[in-house]
Amino acid sequence: MEAQKQKKWLLNLDDDNDNDDVLATFIVPAEIYPARLCATSHGISAASGKVGAIIGSFGFLYLAQSPDPAKAAAHGYPPGIGVRNSLFTLTGCSLLGFLLTFLVPEPKGKSLEEMSRENEVGQP
Fold first, then answer.
1. What is the 3-state secondary structure (H, E, C) of the chain?
2. What is the pLDDT at residue 92?
3. pLDDT, average across residues 42-66
4. Most buried one in 10, 29, 76, 92, CB count within 10 A?
């Protein structure tokens, strides 16, 4: 019960109600990585999220340009796929992320040590 209260408290830290980034960056890595690698893996997850945000920001800028070369050249950008198709692409990426979230293992109340079987004899 205490763990559920902590999760709710962590999720409520975000005032804008976009808890997906909080969940993916802080809660999921803390639950799925082995305890001895948790900090390193958590850092890799956070860095990957930031790299994805940079790629998404600049990628949307270029993709959202008009497919008409004359209009795109007027702004100094190469032709893109248009705003409508860019938004469909972003929607597809979001749905893919949503579906991949279901591949994350559920801890079911187990500690990190129990999940990673660190305390068992013969485990590296």
1. CHHHHHHHHHHCCCCCCCCHHHHHHHHHHHHHCCHHHHHHHHHHHHHHHHHHHHHHHHHHHHHCCCCCHHHHHHHCCCCCCCHHHHHHHHHHHHHHHHHHHCCCCCCCCCCHHHHHCCCCCCCC
2. 92
3. 85
4. 29
pLDDT for 22-49, tens place per residue?
A: 666 667 777 777 777 778 887 887 888 8
How far apart are the C-alpha atoms of 109 and 121, rounded to whole Å?
22
Report CA torsion sign: 108, 111, 115, 117: negative
The number of residues making up the chain comes to 124
- State how far the Cα of 12 lies from the Cα of 21, in Å rounded to an integer: 12
What contacts 83, CB < 8 A, 6 or more positions away?
Answer: 64
Encode burial over 53-76: b for 16+ CB neighbours within 10 A, e otherwise: eeeeeebeeebbbbeeeeebeeee
pLDDT, tens digit, 9 for 90 and up, residues 76-117:
888 889 889 988 998 998 899 888 878 876 767 776 667 666
